[in-house]
Structures are given as structure tokens and as C-alpha cells.
């Protein structure tokens, strides 16, 4: 893929988000999502804005035009174009970051992280919002246990109470018997792994 980076976890997460957006039926963009206050279009706007935010912090270039935390629900371009532009910008930015970089600028507190944790946080955002879009529109869960395990260290390092208070992630849900790695990751981000739109 043309936007592949040296970061496998980011490549996989970007593909989840891209595929989820491609799989949305034409009449499903206003459906509710696991992000209780947002519909599918708004989750896409938020997810794209977050990817642009990471790119902006790394490169110093422009960030999202709209506030990712107050998505309007109206897209300036096609959904595929919106997500592709954001993914391309994010991938290009992370491609400039050395794998052993100790301090990478990021848009979430404390605003600098090691490359490994920072790229994991960026990938977590794309993958989890890809899951939100997928399950809201009747697609199967795109998360794999392998990716969930790879994302959990970044989730544990970055999803702190200040982040939850800003509304980036809801309060964690209690683990349930039989949870696998995907369910554990989703519960940590405040999501119900069995969520459905009905």
C-alpha cells in the first residue's frame, strides 16, 4: 500500500479505518455509534481529525480545519476522500519518525511520547474508531487479537483520567468472564464489545 510506514501497528490500524469507511452503506451515515453523542459521519470526522492532529504535531503542518471534538456531521468531501487524506498525512508524518525516538510531539497529554507509545496511541485511535464505524453499520469487528495485544500498551500508557475527562475515551468497563484480547482493549477504552445499533 502506498502509505505503508515502518510501523506495522499503524499500517494495520489505518487499513481498519479505511476499510470500515469503504464498507458503510450509503444510507448509514447518520446511524448511531458506540460514541453515544455521535453518528457515523461524526465519528469519521473525529477520527480523520485526530490523524491530522498527529501529523500536524509531528511536522508542524496544518491540522484539522474543524474541531475533532465537535464534529459537525457535514463532510467537505466524500467519506473516502476525507479518510484517505487523513491517513496519508498521518502515515507521511510517522514515516519521518525514528523508531528509537524518545520524544515525539503528539496532540495528547503530555504532548511528547516515545515513538513506540506515540505511534501506538495514533494507531489505537484509528483502529478503535474504525471498529466504531464498522459495528455501527453492520460490518464485522475488524479488530484482531494480535492487533489488540499490540495496542494495549499504548492504551494503558495514554488513556489516563485527564484523557477520559476530555471525552476522548469513556470510563473503562469491568472485565467479563470469557473476554479475549479484543474485548479487553474495547472495555479499557470504555466500549461494550457486544454493542449493536439495534
TrEMBL record:
Gene Ontology molecular-function annotations: metal ion binding
Pfam families with a match to the protein in the record: MDMPI_N
Gene3D superfamilies: dinb family like domain
InterPro entries membership: CHP03086, DinB/YfiT-like, Maleyloyr_isom, MDMPI_metal-binding
Domain Mycothiol-dependent maleylpyruvate isomerase metal-binding: 11-134
Source organism superkingdom: Bacteria
Name of the protein this chain belongs to: TIGR03086 family protein
Lineage start: Bacteria, Bacillati, Actinomycetota, Actinomycetes, Streptosporangiales
